Amino acid sequence: MIRVKKRWLQELEPGDLVVMQVNSTDYQMYSVEKVTKNFVTVTGGERFRRSDGQPVGSIGNCTRKLLEYNDQLAEKIQESNDKRRLVNILLDTDWDEFPVSVLEDIVKRVR
Asked: In what order do the strands lie in the sheet with 65-68?
């Protein structure tokens, strides 16, 4: 298999921001801690290949990968975090405190 090197990965330096795509809807921002000839280490110690942004040890195309930081991805990260926060609030809510009419209104809004 021939790997195409991504220029932005080759230009990374410690302190740069990168985005890790965890799955199709979840993105996380990390800071680059260390850069070697072949690898990029991000906050928390996870290592990625500089050639393609895939996690060290992965074979083929992995869902998790590094992406170049940009404003559009920063917005996606913020939206993902906001949604996760709101869902957690809903999950922690004691729904027994609400009358049925209020719960029916909530259901109508989300469907």
From this structure: 47-49, 39-42, 27-35, 17-21, 65-68
Does any domain span residue 2? no
Provide the number of structural domains found in the chain.
Answer: 1
Which residues, 6 or more positions from 39, have their beta carbon under 8 angstroms from its beta carbon? 47, 48, 49, 50, 56
Domain limits for position 92? 7-110
| Residue 12 in domain | yes
Interval 7-36: pLDDT, tens: 899 999 999 999 988 877 788 889 999 999
pLDDT tens by residue, 81-99: 898 899 999 999 999 999 9
> Is residue 32 domain-resident?
yes
Query: To the nearest whole percent, how much of the chain has pLDDT over 90?
Result: 57
Q: Kindly state the helix (H) or strand (E) to which residue 71 belongs, with its residue range.
A: helix 71-91
| Helix (H) / strand (E) containing 29 | strand 27-35
